[in-house]
Structures are given as C-alpha cells and as structure tokens.
Amino acid sequence: MSTTATTTFHFDEPLAAVASNLHLAVVVPSAVVGAGLLYAWLERRGRNRWSAVPLSRVAVASGPYRASEVVAARLPHAPRAVKAAAFVSLAFAHVFAPLVVIALSKYPFDGIAIPLLPGVALAALDWWCAWLLLARSPSAYSIGRAAASASMLANVALLVMAGAHLALVELDRQQGLQHSCSSSVTLVVLLFAAASIAQALVMRGVLRRSAPALTWAEAG
C-alpha cells in the first residue's frame, strides 16, 4: 500500500489571527466613519468653489467689432463622480494608513515589508487629492492624474513581487525548508497593492470623465 503526500498552501497563522492582529474589527469601521465625517466637512467647504467658478463661458456678439462673454453654466456642488472618487481616496487613506503601521509593528520587518513604508506617504497623498477634488483646485486634475499613474506603476510591480515572494516562500516551506519571512505580512502587502490599484483606477476614470469641469478654471 502506498500513500500520496499532499501539500496545501498555508499562512504563518490563520486568517482570523491575521485579522485580529491587525485589529480589523476596530480599524475598518472606525476608518470608514472617520472618512465619512471628513468627507462631509470637505465637501461642504468646497461647494462655494464649485458654484463660484463657472463651468464654461459663451461668447456673445455685442457689436460690430466687440463680443462679450456670459456664464453658460454653474455647478452647485461637485459632480457625483468627483465626490465618489474623493470619498474612495479618503476611505483608502483612513483604512490603510493605520493598517500599514500596525503590520510593520506586529510582523517581522523582512524585505517584502519594506515597500509598505511608502504606504503612509501614499495615504497622505490620497488625502490631499481628495481635498483638491472637492475644492475644485486648478491643480486637482494634474496632481490626481500624476498620483494615480505613479500608484499604478508602483503597485502593479509590488503586486507581482509580493505574489512571487509568497509563492517561493511557501514552496520552500512545503519542501521542509525553514524561512524567517512572514507570509502574513506578505498578505498585507498583497491587499495593500490590490486596493491601491483599484483606487488609482477609480481616480483615473473619474478624472477622465470630469476633466472639463476640473480643468476649465486652469485653462481660463
């Protein structure tokens, strides 16, 4: 009689333990509530900017050699797509800034954890982009697009690297080799990179759709 050994993929600890170590039950609800409160405050402050700056002007002839401009449209507040992108940016920042700090303090600081360090800076950049959007800043489009492109470039590479790292570590472990690297922190890196890519895609799509409303003041 022969037996066939089977190996299964596993993390350093159960996923429930990872969630407990990261305090997900407290961090995520608190972060979403905090993002919602900040969003409401920023959106209310930005309404004056959206209503004060016209969406467009139309040239109207007023004489044989002269023409005047009249306001063609005004927006009472930011478009829904812009508000959605701002809230997503705030929620991402509020959720992942504390999670990154907790993960770096709870798990071994091995090589794969190093790319998490810029995550706090990325969260601060997302806060800034959200405010620029809701305030209809002339630089909102250019800064938001640059931030989304940089996030896409960095986090696609990080996602591939973290996936390869996780696969290699687990392959060695299944062959009986010991690793000091934590697969749990690699899971955090994977989640962070995937969420960053999703947030960047949302931002790029909204900026493309709302470009006329965001760039008119700068062009004018």
In short:
With 220 residues, the chain is mostly helical. It has helices spanning 15-21, 24-52, 80-106, 118-134, 140-174, 183-209, 211-219; strands spanning 56-61, 67-73.
Describe this structure in words.
It is built from seven helices and two strands; from the N terminus they run ααββααααα. The protein has 220 residues and is mainly alpha-helical. The protein has one domain (22-219). It has a two-stranded antiparallel sheet with strand order 1-2. A hairpin with a 5-residue loop joins β1 and β2.
Overview features:
single chain, 220 residues, mainly alpha, two-stranded antiparallel sheet, disordered N terminus
For the biggest β-sheet, the strand order reads 1-2
H/E series: HHEEHHHHH
Radius of gyration: 23 Å
Could you give the count of β-strands?
Answer: 2
Which outline best applies?
Answer: elongated
Low-confidence stretches: 1-8, 57-61, 67-72
Strand content: 5-15%
Class by alpha and beta content: mainly alpha
Main β-sheet, in a few words?
Answer: 2 strands, antiparallel
Secondary structure: helix percent? 55-70%
Distance between the termini: 83 Å
